[in-house]
Amino acid sequence: MVRLGAFLVGLFFSGMLLLGLGDTVIKAIQEPAQPSAEYEFHEKPLAVSFAHDGPFGKFDRGQLQRGLKVYSEVCAACHSLNLVAFRDFAALGYNEDQVKALAKAWKTEVPTINPETGEPATRPGIPADKIPSPFANEVAARAANNNALPPDLSLITKARADGTAYVYSLLMGYRDQAGYKNAEGKELLKEFPDAATPAGLHFNPWFANLNIAMANPIAGDDQVTYDDGTKATKEQMAKDVSAFLAWTAEPKMENRKSAGWAALGFLFIFTVLAWMSYRTIWADKKH
Amino acid sequence: MSFPWAQEYKPQGTVSKWVDERLPLPRLVYNAVGAGYPVPRNLNYFWNFGVLAGVALVIQIVTGIILAMHYYASVDGAFNSVEHIMRDVNSGWFIRYAHMNGASFFFIVVYIHIFRGLFYGSYKAPREMIWLLGVTIFLLMMATAFMGYVLPWGQMSFWGAQVITGFFSAIPVVGEPLRQWLLGGFAPDQAALNRFFSLHYLMPFVIAGVIILHVWALHIPGSSNPTGVSVKSEQDTVPFHPYYTAKDGFGLGIFLIFFVAVTFFAPNMLGHPDNYIPANPLSTPAHIVPEWYFLPFYAILKAFTVDFGIPFTGIIIIEAKLMGVLAMFGSILLLFFLPWLDTSPVRSGHYRPLFRKFFWFGLIPCIILLTYCGGKPPYTQWVILSQIAAAYYFIHFLIILPIVSRIERPLPLPNSITEAVTGKPLEKAAA
């Protein structure tokens, strides 16, 4: 009885699946999938390497400080960093006084209330504050950005596939759409005349749908002046800020890797000892 | 309950005797996982995975309890409370990554444990009850893992909850009210998040309870073994302790090395980047996928693309969506009937030439294909592959398996476990 029921259920499900298979094949032949501009012209992130890559990688403190400079002078005009506090910048190699000074000098002040009147007010930042957002709320952010919402950047490198390389590629990826060809030599506007970037958007083949609301934030060299004398090329700035955002997404990365090696070392010894006791105990038993 | 030659617990000191007379808990442990439990001597490394699954559950419970001390089940605060754990709680990043990857490793060891059972026929008489309880544990694990994935309230949390609870709305008439009742609203929101947190905390203890029954049921006939031949004498067995405690200790070391390597060096490898974006009910992700361990079932769900109805009349009896949901649940529920679908008296796949071919060249590639297609966008090639693989899945368990067990001629079995191991027949006198 069980087997008869099973046989019928199996026949029904597999029959419906095979009907569906026929249906899928017929549809695929009758109306083959149209190639899309996003599918053919979206680029994989560029190959780029960082000091913090790999199981032994550590953040380059100098690079993180330069990245913070790029963030504070360029990105912070639109993008918040809600999950990071000024006190966290101590991890970039700043001392307590420098952190205090950074918090105090931050362009956006921290919202508060006037203790006398209760009216909304702002005050300079202190180390315990989270980085203040450039806009008071989402409506204000959209109003100032052509109805696009600049995402918070705290976790951006974890929130995108291959995140750090993605951020770097996106910053380096603004292209002139007229005459743009991909690696296979196909010209976008010839293949897909409808894919022309709409007004108010910017062509960037590293962005999922090729057209991003953000204007090229790092348009040329020397947009910031680095304190350590590093030449602020476009590439250098893109790389530094990507590394900085890798740190904001995972400030505990170095602890994680060093704890990982300690744990692996411990487990290696444990496993060798466990193997030896296993062999000893089983020595007289064939199995 | 056990073999007559099982060693008896003999309390030594006065305290042990005193305890044994009043609450024989040490005796219970001795008989369950100590020297008092005789186990076949020929178990291979696949028999490590039951203990490993138990360890994985303990890791999940311990890390989970600590996470719950810092987590805040609120649609406004859940995402940030997880990031608070990652950034500000002492070693919180470790606890959270261990819990997140612990779920994946729990499923990895349980899947290997299940496939061990499938290949070696561990579900057959007299072990049907162990198998039924095992499938129950698997279902409870899936529910627990799903609810846990919702808790960080990221994009995949929210949209995963939306899709999975949407299954219920496929049920005719009562579907939509049922879905709203389960969620406590029209869409996943505060009410759903709170109850998911409550249930996510409860269910692991329910799982632990069913595991106790699973192990209890195991101790009635004792462990199976790679030959599938029943234990015949003391020579066939060794005491669990120290023999298998030692072997499990080594297996545990290997397991933890893999677990630690992923947790510390690629903690986000098995997750989805979108879950680092806070949940936004107004923005649907381009491509909603569940966690990797649900992908085969998700592929089965999506493989049903045509309605079942009366041809040429336009009357639909079962819509494709409902059929997908039924098939997805059916693909797991059919495992409950496995002991009665596979009627071959031979347990181990080693001695079943035909069964073995279908297992390695049919079932295993089919599951791998389903897992792969489940994570892909619904492009024609992936739909075609998942339809073929899903059809095979049902045909394998519901049609092939009963037929194979009827027509197959098994290879000769060894007379005893000892003979299989040593090549010498059992010494009757010695036993």
UniProtKB/TrEMBL annotation, chain A:
State the Pfam families in the record.
Answer: Cytochrom_C1
Matching entries from PROSITE patterns are given as: CYTC (PS51007)
Q: Name one GO cellular component term.
A: membrane
User: Which cofactors are named for this entry?
Assistant: heme c
Keyword Membrane: yes or no?
yes
Enumerate the SUPFAM superfamilies for this protein. Answer: Cytochrome c
**What are the transmembrane regions?**
259-278
The record describes how the cofactor is bound as: Binds 1 heme c group covalently per subunit.
Chief location of this protein within or outside the cell: membrane
Q: Which UniProt keywords apply?
A: Heme, Iron, Membrane, Metal-binding, Transmembrane, Transmembrane helix
The name of this protein is Cytochrome c1
| Species of provenance | Sphingorhabdus wooponensis
UniProtKB/TrEMBL annotation, chain B:
Cell location: Membrane
Swiss-Prot/TrEMBL keywords:
Electron transport, Heme, Iron, Membrane, Metal-binding, Respiratory chain, Transmembrane, Transmembrane helix, Transport
Note how many cofactor molecules are bound and how.
Answer: Binds 2 heme groups non-covalently.
Q: Which residues bind heme b b566 per the record? A: H113, H214
List positions binding heme b b562.
H99, H200
Record's keyword annotation contains Heme? yes
Q: Which cofactor does it need?
A: heme b; heme
Which residue windows are transmembrane per the record?
A: 45-73, 93-118, 130-151, 157-175, 196-217, 250-271, 292-318, 324-342, 354-372, 384-404
Question: Where in this chain does the record put each Cytochrome b/b6 N-terminal region profile domain?
Answer: 15-227
State the protein's purpose: Component of the ubiquinol-cytochrome c reductase complex (complex III or cytochrome b-c1 complex), which is a respiratory chain that generates an electrochemical potential coupled to ATP synthesis.
Name of the protein in question: Cytochrome b
Organism in which the protein naturally occurs: Sphingorhabdus wooponensis
